[in-house]
Amino acid sequence: MTGKSTYLKLNNGVEMPALGLGVFQSSPEDTVGAVEAALEEGYRLIDTAAAYGNERQVGEAIVRSGVDRSEVFVTTKLWISDYGYDEALHAFDASLKRLGLDHLDLYLLHQPVPTDFDGTVAAYKAAEKLLADGRVRAIGVSNQSEQHLTDLMARTEVVPAVNQVEIHPYFNQPALRAFHAGHGILTQAWSPIGGITVYRPADPDNVRNALREPVVTALADKYGKTPAQVLLRWHLEHGVSPIPKSVRPSRIAENIDVFDFSLTPAEVAAVDALDTGVRGGPDPELINTTTHPKRVEN
Ligand SMILES: NC(=O)c1ccc[n+]([C@@H]2O[C@H](COP(=O)([O-])OP(=O)(O)OC[C@H]3O[C@@H](n4cnc5c(N)ncnc54)[C@H](OP(=O)(O)O)[C@@H]3O)[C@@H](O)[C@H]2O)c1
What we know:
Blueprint: E1 7-9, E2 15-17, E3 21-22, H1 28-41, E4 45-47, H2 55-65, E5 73-78, H3 85-99, E6 104-109, H4 117-132, E7 136-142, H5 146-155, E8 162-166, H6 174-183, E9 186-190, H7 195-199, H8 214-223, H9 227-237, E10 241-242, H10 249-256, H11 265-272
Parallel strand pairs: 3-4, 4-5, 5-6, 6-7, 7-8, 8-9, 9-10
Antiparallel strand pairs: 1-2
Helix pairs in contact: 1-2, 1-10, 2-3, 3-4, 8-9
């Protein structure tokens, strides 16, 4: 069994598979099968989070797959109910225990908490300590804007290796991607095939589905690929790491079968042109423990 994805180099030299499997909204029951199917298909990056409630199943699937731990790049995320220095260290231990691992590949702060940025900075400093202690190979953030990153970097030592943010054709964040490139931060795309605009549409009577856009279906026809494959390839052409979620083995296989074709710069630009500048997910400015009272039990 070998991996199918190409690799991207993080700012500390660690190599990360460019494409991985996401497991947000994968039920615990579905997660073992999805992760096992993914590893069988050649995925070597799995993206979970303490808040997803399926870290245990991710760990179980890795063991069941028979793929060597050293080959699998595991990301999990610290939820905001555990921000603060000591709280973050404790939550990391709890995540590792649920995953059944002795170290992690990438640890991300799940959200900025702009109304308590001191807590966010303290959590990041805990991540820096975990990195220094060799308990995680790389650290980063998620859903941070240019301003959040600027504020964070001014108060901490380690430049985030990754910022995982919403990116799909309708919200492709060129300014943030350019900022990342200027600071050595790798852009990772959540909802890479536009899931958020379908499962949480702004207007349920007028769902926008990037997989049905004529420019995307035309490229799919041209290359003998599916619309999802075209969009995943579009991310890769941008140097962005997509982490599509599926619990269906056929789609899991489809989503990693994107390393045998490429899009031209003009084709990439044609997909870029679908950008509306409007995000589908929650505004990171508004995320805090009052607006998002969910707690992770550690
Ligand atoms: N950091 C954050 O705040 C954050 C937020 C959201 C997501 N994420 C991460 O990003 C990952 C992916 O994002 P996402 O789940 O929001 O969206 P996505 O990957 O763009 O879309 C997932 C949706 O598309 C369907 N799907 C998957 N492959 C398909 C294909 N080939 N053709 C048609 N439909 C397909 C899936 O259904 P089936 O499962 O039924 O196939 C699911 O409903 C998450 O799992 C999570 O790891 C992070």
